[in-house]
Design a protein that fits this description.
Order of helices and strands: HHHHHHHEEHH
Oligomer: single chain
Strand order of the largest sheet: 1-2
Helix content: over 70%
Number of strands: 2
Structural class: mainly alpha
Strand content: under 5%
Length: 331
């Protein structure tokens, strides 16, 4: 028997599947070109390059996701094509690793953000130190000026506040005070501009970092949704979410387990309370026994002391009686 000829509908599906597969390959190539053109030249220790890498991978991730979707669609339209099926499996495995890679971009973005802020702070400190040295030099030149014309020449030479000829008619001390105030104002303005971490110099880093982090998280979830496992016919995202899904039987078993744990904890508390009461009663009895023993010992000591005193009194009386008897015999 002759095998049945494929219908026109099957021919269209097969041809569309091949076209979509080729389009997916083109999208993957475009994604690779965009990323490589952004990250070259490579500067591994530069925080700006790290943020640029993360931004390039995340900003153009929709191209790679579109290619991944076309691969799945092409394989579904032409299920009999072994090359498309193999490409689908390969792209699914790559999508799983891509999801993990986009998650790893989050700590990289955090480190690059921290490193970039540290570099800006170091540059700001160096600029402030240079401005302070320049201001101190200008203040010294202002104080050393002997005349209005000398002050004007010194300010022009050391790039200080400009003194037009009209103000030279003012007293020298007044000109010095105005010049010093102008230098201090410029110095304070520069320090206030670069003092805090929320100045304009930090905003580009914050903006790029937040954008790249948000896009990286969404891209990781999207690639996980496209990482298809042919053995289980599920995606990596479904496998992850199933770990946090609780069925009714599991929920009842978990509830009974929690109730058992609570009852065991309650019984343990009761046993601890009873044991504590027994221990307290034992300590009380032991304390009473020790107190009674001390009382008996005190009474024994008092009796011995009383007997000793009585014996001493009798001995004294006996000695007195002997002395009196001896005196009578001598008479």
């Amino acid at each position: 028997m002759q095998s049945p000829k494929p219908s026109i509908k099957d021919d269209i599906s097969n041809s569309v599947g091949l076209i979509l597969g080729n389009l997916a390959t083109g999208l993957f190539a475009l994604y690779l070109i965009f990323v490589l053109s952004d990250i070259f030249p490579i500067r591994l220790l530069d925080p700006l390059w790290m943020i640029t890498l993360a931004g390039s991978l995340c900003n153009t991730s929709s191209i790679a996701l579109s290619g991944l979707g076309l691969v799945h669609l092409a394989s579904a339209l032409n299920p009999s094509s072994l090359p498309l099926y193999s490409r689908r499996i390969f792209c699914s495995r790559f999508a799983a690793w891509a999801a993990l890679g986009f998650l790893m971009l989050l700590p990289l973005i955090g480190y690059a953000n921290w490193k970039g802020i540290r570099n800006i702070e170091a540059a700001n400190k160096a600029n402030i130190a240079a401005i302070n040295r320049k201001a101190n030099e200008l203040k010294t030149q202002i104080m050393q000026a002997s005349t209005q014309r000398d002050l004007q020449e010194r300010m022009a030479k050391f790039q200080g506040p400009t003194l037009p000829n009209e103000v030279l008619a003012l007293p020298l001390e007044q000109l010095k005070k105005q010049s010093l105030a102008s230098v201090r104002a410029s110095e304070n303005a520069f320090e206030n501009k670069t003092a805090g971490p929320f100045s304009d110099e930090y905003l580009p880093i914050y903006k790029q970092s937040l954008r790249a982090a948000a896009l990286g998280l969404v891209a990781a979830l999207s690639f996980a949704a496209g990482a298809w496992n042919p053995k289980t016919n599920t995606t990596a995202l479904n496998s992850i979410t199933s770990l946090f899904t609780i069925s009714p039987s599991k929920s009842s078993s978990i509830l009974s387990l929690l109730v058992g744990k609570l009852q065991a904890l309650k019984q343990s508390n009761v046993n601890d309370k009873v044991q504590s009461e027994r221990l307290s009663l034992f300590r009380t009895r032991q304390q009473n026994s020790e107190n009674a023993k001390k009382v008996r010992e005190r009474e024994i000591k008092l009796n011995l002391e009383k007997q000793r005193r009585l014996a001493a009194a009798w001995e004294k009386k006996r000695l007195q009686a002997e002395r009196q008897a001896k005196k009578r015999r001598e008479r």
